[in-house]
Automatic annotation (TrEMBL):
<dbReference type="GO" id="GO:0046872">
    <property type="term" value="F:metal ion binding"/>
</dbReference>
<protein>
    <submittedName>
        <fullName>Phosphoglycolate phosphatase</fullName>
    </submittedName>
</protein>
<dbReference type="InterPro" id="IPR023198">
    <property type="entry name" value="PGP-like_dom2"/>
</dbReference>
<dbReference type="GO" id="GO:0008967">
    <property type="term" value="F:phosphoglycolate phosphatase activity"/>
</dbReference>
<dbReference type="GO" id="GO:0006281">
    <property type="term" value="P:DNA repair"/>
</dbReference>
<dbReference type="InterPro" id="IPR050155">
    <property type="entry name" value="HAD-like_hydrolase_sf"/>
</dbReference>
<dbReference type="InterPro" id="IPR036412">
    <property type="entry name" value="HAD-like_sf"/>
</dbReference>
<dbReference type="Pfam" id="PF13419">
    <property type="entry name" value="HAD_2"/>
</dbReference>
<dbReference type="InterPro" id="IPR023214">
    <property type="entry name" value="HAD_sf"/>
</dbReference>
<dbReference type="GO" id="GO:0005829">
    <property type="term" value="C:cytosol"/>
</dbReference>
<dbReference type="InterPro" id="IPR041492">
    <property type="entry name" value="HAD_2"/>
</dbReference>
<dbReference type="InterPro" id="IPR006439">
    <property type="entry name" value="HAD-SF_hydro_IA"/>
</dbReference>
<keyword id="KW-0479">Metal-binding</keyword>
């Protein structure tokens, strides 16, 4: 068991139950622009990318920067309205994060959200100073490029083998692998574990508090959880 010092989390679908709002906002923006319907699986498949990259992947027929920006604005307006009441944390997140902090772990966020979007939701929770570091797709490279993880590691003065990345998308896991970091897949967000296991995560969990058990060294139940899927 490694001696981890830094825990890095994706936001949407990992800490916060916001996937439904993302799907709805994508559909509203598409409908306003006369773009075709995309099913839930297609939309969930681009969650984790920076918003311009996500839009371009989902709607390659939008060929100009202005069209992407219009879509982005419509999406942001609808999502921000929904977030006037913040999306709930997943079960076990609040208690586990507090436990991690009390145990001396540094905590960070690496997200496909914009800086404005992340700051908005962090402010809604009174969490603007909660994490040691945060990185957003519009201020660095989008996932799965490992640049945001490299920047967090430098800021926190932690080596890659002393950090782990926790996320619910294939982009999170690929980014961690490229940064030579331990990766943890969560199966309650955008993608099921059956998809995420294709990215060879170091650990797979179905409930957030299982990460806490694993880090505390109580691995017996977690081994059984992982073995259900491999």
């Amino acid at each position: 068991m490694r001696d981890y010092r830094l825990l890095i989390f994706d936001w949407d679908g990992t800490l916060v139950d916001s996937i439904g709002r993302i799907v709805e906002s994508m559909r509203v923006a598409a409908e306003a622009g006369g773009l075709p319907w995309r099913d839930d699986a297609a939309i969930k498949g681009i969650i984790g990318l920076g918003l311009p990259e996500a839009i371009a992947t989902l709607y390659p027929e939008i060929e100009d920067v202005r069209g992407i920006e219009i879509f982005r604005r419509r999406y942001g307006e609808h999502y921000s309205a929904l977030e006037s009441r913040p999306s709930p944390l997943f079960e076990g997140v609040a208690e586990s994060l507090e436990a991690f902090r009390s145990q001396g772990y540094q905590l960070a966020v690496a997200t496909g959200k914009s800086r404005r979007g992340l700051d908005h939701v962090l402010a809604g929770r009174g969490w603007l100073d909660y994490f040691e570091a945060t990185r957003c797709a519009d201020e660095t490279a989008s996932k799965p490029d490992p640049r945001m993880l490299h920047e967090i590691l430098v800021h926190c003065r932690v080596a890659p083998d002393q950090a782990l990345m926790v996320g619910d998308s294939a982009f999170d896991l690929r980014m961690a692998h490229r940064a030579r970091m331990t990766s943890v897949a969560v199966g309650y967000g955008a993608l099921p574990l059956s998809e995420l296991l294709k990215e060879s995560p170091s650990l797979a969990i179905e409930r957030f508090e299982e990460l806490r058990h694993w880090l505390d060294g109580d691995r017996s139940r977690q081994v059984l959880e992982v073995e259900r899927y491999v």
